Amino acid sequence: MGIRTPFGEQFGLTYPIVLAPMAAVSGGRLAAAVSNAGGLGLVGGGYGDPDWLEAQLPVVRDGTSHSWGIGLITWIANRHIVELALRFQPHVFFLSFGDPRPFAPMIKDAGCVLICQVQDVDAAIQAKAAGADVIVAQGTEAGGHGALRATLPLVPAVADAVAPTPVLAAGGIADGRSLAAALLLGAQGAVIGTRFFACEESLGLPAAKQRICAAKGGDTVRTRIFDVVRGYAWPAAFTGRALRNRFTAQWAGREEALAQVAERERPGYQAAAAAGDFDTAVVFAGEAVDLIHDVPSAAELVRRIGVGAEARLKAGPSLIV
Ligand SMILES: Cc1cc2nc3c(=O)[nH]c(=O)nc-3n(C[C@H](O)[C@H](O)[C@H](O)COP(=O)(O)O)c2cc1C
């Protein structure tokens, strides 16, 4: 059993499920577990900490004989960190949030499949022109950074705009129903983040996983607050979807004031993050938290989402009169 799309076949996937490269959450162990279960595991290289990458990339490389990949945040990446990642010979390189052109040639020259995540149709066309082999249409429902368009209308619009380049859907996909829906919208697979945050192998702290299990979609908010306090100069187009907490309540609508005192606030914030105090520290998570109630293994999640989508797709013809 399985679900076959051209994208999935390219990597020998049982199900066209891609682990989102979640910064500090998608480590080597989780990426390997997803690839071993028949999906495609991507390590979340995030802001490009070389020590972290040197520790995590051998874990995925040695942990699976299947395809795997690495993701970086494009606007803060540099040639040195891309070269470091390429030394581990990933099959897939995932770039998101910024112009992929400075890095596309070196990634493709290394023989990697280049996947670019975008948030609107114009960026999809630009990513294709830059050499992207696969485009991810990321809707605003997504956990972590993103922009304003919603997944449901964005995915078919991007699929039309870049055809025949394969498109994956991201944002709000957490079970078999939403994977099946993404495929019917014209996507060849789904990039899934928040659902995998709450699994055994993710690097998220147990208290963060428990908050995801307890939260409702309405408990999430798109905000710059956590970027301001952490000192990351994100381009204005991107905000991060996170669980609301005491810190967002304190600073909502007062981002400029927070920027004034960010350096003073930062040590306390970092101490809270290290201690797992999520009344202050961020838990990036998307609207799909409504669908998340447990912390299973990554393999169980790939199976559950894949089998669920299969059942939905098989039931489709019964809807037709
Ligand atoms: C905790 C977390 C961290 C994330 N970090 C990154 C990142 O470093 N780079 C990236 O391209 N996307 C990142 N994302 C966004 C994912 O690539 C993806 O678009 C998103 O998770 C899909 O939506 P979903 O969370 O509803 O599944 C992150 C998402 C989450 C939940």
In short:
This protein has 321 residues and is α/β, with parallel strands linked by helices. Helix content is 43%, strand content 15%.
Q: Proportion of β residues?
A: 5-15%
Order of helices and strands: HEHEHEHEHEHEEHEHEHHEHEHHH
Main-sheet strand order equals 1-9-8-6-5-4-3-2
Oligomer: single chain
**Given the C-alpha coordinates, what overall shape results?**
globular
The number of helical segments is: 14
* Average pLDDT reading: 98
Small-molecule binders:
flavin mononucleotide
The helix fraction, in percent, is 40-55%
**Segments where pLDDT lies below 50 for 5+ residues?**
none
* Count of individual beta strands: 11
Describe the structure.
The chain is α/β, with parallel strands linked by helices and 321 residues long. Helices cover 43% and strands 15% of the residues. It contains 14 helices and eleven strands. The strands form two sheets. It has an eight-stranded parallel sheet. A three-stranded antiparallel sheet has the order 7-11-10. Helix 6 runs parallel beside helix 7. The chain is globular, with a radius of gyration of 18 Å.
